[in-house]
Amino acid sequence: MFSFFKKKQPPFEGDLSILGTDMHSHLIPGIDDGSPDLDTSVELIQGMIALGYKKLITTPHLMIDLYPNNRQTIAKGFETLKAELKKRKINIEIQAAAEYFLDDHFDSLLEKKEPLLTLKDNLVLVEFSFASLPLDYKEKIFAIQLNGYKPVLAHPERYTYLHNKPDIYETLRDVGCLFQVNLLSLTGYYGKSVAQVADRFFKKQQIELLGSDLHHDRHMQNLQSPQLRQRANEVANALPLLNSQL
Fold this sequence. Notes:
- Strand 5, helix 3 and strand 6 (123-127) form a beta-alpha-beta unit.
- The chain has helices at 38-50, 71-87, 104-111, 137-146, 166-174, 192-203, 217-223, 226-238, and strands spanning 21-22, 55-58, 61-62, 93-96, 99-101, 123-127, 150-154, 178-182, 209-211.
- It is built from eight helices and nine strands.
- Helices cover 36% and strands 13% of the residues.
């Protein structure tokens, strides 16, 4: 008998192992707006393992006015986290880099030739303000490159002041920025317009990396959704992402 009702598809059962490495998270306890304590960090890391990740690169904020981290504070917190994972016999490859806020302090790091914490080799994760684009954004990108680094722009789809300025996105591509899109953006966690811009990047093949930007359990719950896992696999199968090379 012919049915007018479309057969309901079963929930997607795959995980996120296709990505291999997550390269954007806030898992070092107590040094930024991510995990507040070791127990939370461990729970979030166990969640990432369950999602199929084989390696985590955690990237605390380095934002001088709010989170005045440096290589030393990050290293100290990271060693504490690694020791706790070893104590609990939790086995996953993990390293620490940073998410650098492009401000005057970052400019001074470059001027002083301070070595930056990179994702791998010369790849450095950077972010803009969520309020407005730096007037000298091109100069900042060029300065990064002049110092031998390759800029990876964190969550460009989330800068809503650029949503109606596609020419600036194209300029960022032209001056050498790689784009890291948040997994949660793919399914509308941050809002419809953010999801639309993420989809635009996907269709234009302008996504080099997918990151969880994991801060807390609410993020984890959304990362576990079948809808997100399915969409992430679609993107990873269609684009030559760099995650697995990190």
